[in-house]
Amino acid sequence: MYTLIRAEFFRCTKIRLFWLSLCLCPAAGIFSGCLVSANEENFFPILLAPSSLILGIFLSLNTGREYSDGTVRNKLIAGNTKTQIFLARLCCSVPTGALMAALFILPFSMLSAGTLHSFIPADILWHAVLTFILLHGTWAVIFTVVSSLISSREVGSIINLLLIILIAVICSTIEFELGHPEFIQNEEASLVPVTQEELEQIHNNTFAGSYFTSPEQGAANHYYKYETDISATKNPAYVQRPRRTILETVYYLLPSGQTGNYISYFTACFCGDDPLAAKEKDYKMLDWLPLYSLILMAVLSGTGLCLFRKKEFFF
């Protein structure tokens, strides 16, 4: 097993695409950091982190190459089991994903530090950086499972790229569904006569509000004011439990959902919300996101291993 893991890492270092990917990640981080620094309200580059795209392309082509050049066949002939081959891939893919994430997020953080530090506490920022690196481990597991089950590296690359888009669309849809308020406020304005006390305030120019007069022929002016009646009605679009719990769990499990949760939090803080109060009120799950990533990594790894062991190889 150790020999297989060492061979996986050694094989990566001999591929030019690996070093090209390592160069593209910090370049993408610098570009995204400049975008955020230029426009403080634009956190979209974090959501579409190019590092996940680069990672998906690299792992798909690297894993698919093992099928085309007969590496998998040679490993099986040498006596290695499918379990050992799959776990060795994971042991190489997850650190590779974390490395590419770090190479993207560190220059991004340094360039956008002036913007983010102005309204986000440092400990929350560091937690966001660690969460971002860890969720790339989740991406690595997803890409490895798909590429291991599909022998064609071209098809595997396309499916992995489509998965990035699909997961982003799913998370955006869930976020939209969960964003509906539970109650809708209705305001109804009506015109009512002023009281005697308010009439005296009008004459003394001390009335705090708007009033209107309705002159009548041969009579004194009649004074009226607007009264607003505010009522709340149940929003039919509000997602009730247990469906809401299911959607929230899926949203927090998926990498794009975790990233979107942090972006919503950063945007709320930038718009004036107190960072600690907002975190305690609406973003309590930020501290639990790394655990969600580990759970999804474990589930996908186990599922991928079971499917890979059933995969038939023809020599």
Overview of this structure, please?
- The chain is mostly helical and 315 residues long.
- Helix content is 69%, strand content 9%.
- It is built from 13 helices and 3 strands.
- It has helices at 2-13, 16-38, 44-47, 50-68, 71-77, 82-116, 122-149, 153-178, 196-203, 243-253, 255-270, 275-281, 289-310; strands at residues 183-193, 211-214, 222-234.
- The protein has a 3-stranded antiparallel β-sheet with strand order 1-3-2, with no helix packed on it.
- A hairpin with a 7-residue loop joins β2 (211-214) and β3.
- α2 packs parallel to α6.
- The protein is elongated and about 100 Å long.
Topology:
Layout: H1 2-13, H2 16-38, H3 44-47, H4 50-68, H5 71-77, H6 82-116, H7 122-149, H8 153-178, E1 183-193, H9 196-203, E2 211-214, E3 222-234, H10 243-253, H11 255-270, H12 275-281, H13 289-310
Antiparallel strand pairs: 1-3, 2-3
